[in-house]
Amino acid sequence: MGMVGEFKKFLERGNAIDLAVGVIIGGAFGKIVSSLVDDLLMPPIGMLLGGFDLAALKLRLGGPDDAPVTLAYGAFLQAAVDFVIIGFCVFLLVRAVNAVRRPAPGAPPAPPKDIQLLTEIRDLLAKRAE
Known about the structure:
The protein is mainly α. Helices cover 70% and strands 5% of the residues. It contains four helices and two strands; from the N terminus they run H-H-E-E-H-H. A two-stranded antiparallel sheet has the order 1-2. A hairpin with a 6-residue loop joins strand 1 (59-62) and strand 2. Helix 2 (15-48) packs across helix 3 (73-101).
């Protein structure tokens, strides 16, 4: 079996489809959370901090005035904040899914036969002692 045959077999197992769906949903979810951070969370935080824009922080390293060479560490910090918020949202989502999937507590399993017999013997001996 050649590489094409192996690839076809891989696709038929469904793993590639599941992975593709996960990547697509993850990308869409990332855009939603990025919008949440950029459009809803950061403006009030920036206002509270006196108009502070984290993503605008830069360190000029040199170069001409019309094309300066800068180190945009604010964009990195903004990406780190986005990552933490996205991670927290994913945590909440997984937690909610696990709560839904958790099986309802059922009746406790019956004790083994030897324990049942010992319990009966104990009860019979307690009746005789009375």
